[in-house]
Amino acid sequence: MRVLVVEDHVTLAARIGEGLRDAGMAVDVVHDGAAALAGTTTTAYDVIVLDRDLPVVHGDQVCRTLAAGAPARILLLTAAASVEDRVDGLELGADDYLGKPFAFPELVARVRALARRATSAPPLVRRGDLTVDRARHRAGRAGRPLSLTRKEFGVLEMLVAADGAVVSAEELLEHVWDAYADPFSNVVSVTLARLRRKLGPPPVIETVVGRGYRI
Fold first, then answer.
1. Helices (H), 92-135
2. What is the Cα–Cα distance from 45 to 19, expressed in whole angstroms?
């Protein structure tokens, strides 16, 4: 899951980014509305956590622009938390609204819920003897729990959500890793090799030569 955090308070933005990464997400952080709009032109984010009171381009304008053209789900995160404020935010095109101060587990749960809404896959996905609980961030095979890293789970989550369709290495890199990932590295193939070992036999991930991978 790839998340963009747009927050002008640098310390808070860093804490949100760190906390979401600890929850297994790939996170990019920017501090003004113009940077948010620029970032979404080059990266397909799953969820955007957006502060309303932003410099350069106001958060309301960012929300309105992204809601009209970007596929990402938008979570408005702001200190203005009255009923009227929430209604205004949702009418701008936001998918959810969370007031400051907030409980971090609630933020994580809301971001995950929005990401699940962006795909047709249910929270709990079964493919044969493989089970992926996207809500609880757990996976198992044949009744055996799998101990997966954040990146391994992210790759597996994308593959099961694709429901048998091919997912390219470029798509995996864009959604599971953040902006610091080297696009010319072999990080995707290395992660897939580790994931396959942990899944065990018989193999469930197929390589489609020249195209990508699928369950």
1. 104-117
2. 17
CA distances from 172 to 98, 140, 146, 195 (A): 29, 21, 20, 14
The candidate with the shortest Cα–Cα distance to 23, out of 118, 150, 177, 181, is: 150
Whole-Å CA distances, 73 to 102, 128, 175, 178: 19, 30, 14, 17
Q: Find how far residue 175's CA is from the centre of its chain.
A: 7
Distance, in Å, from the CA atom of 144 to the CA atom of 87, rounded to the nearest integer, reads 45
- For residue 17, what are its two tokens? 């980014």
Count of positions (residues) in the chain: 215
pLDDT tens track for 29-81: 999 999 999 999 888 898 999 998 899 999 999 999 998 887 889 999 887 66
Tell me the C-alpha distance between 51 and 177, whole Å.
23
